[in-house]
Structure prediction request, 96 residues.
Amino acid sequence: MKRWSNALLSAGVVAGPLYVVVSLVEVTVRDGFDPTRHAWSMLANGPYGWIHSLTLFAGGLLVVAGAAGLHRVPGARPAPGHPAAARADGGDHGAR
Prediction:
């Protein structure tokens, strides 16, 4: 069980850097793309836009895997009073 948790947590850690690295590679190989004028989301346009879309999809899956790994770690819960500890019933339960 610990091995699965570590693998899921590692997947969550990889999500952000994967997106940044792939986007930076795309920026360097795309003709006419100027990162000072264009948002990275513009990389999803054009004939190679599927690469950026696939990177976003894979990154999302990795984030969800990381969240599942965090859920499996004993004691990895928000502290009482932390905003993330607010219940779904809408009460703030001491969160400020």
Observations:
- The first helix runs from residue 2 to 29.
- The chain has a mean pLDDT of 85.
- The chain has two helices and no strands.
- The CA atoms of residues 57 and 78 lie 27 Å apart.
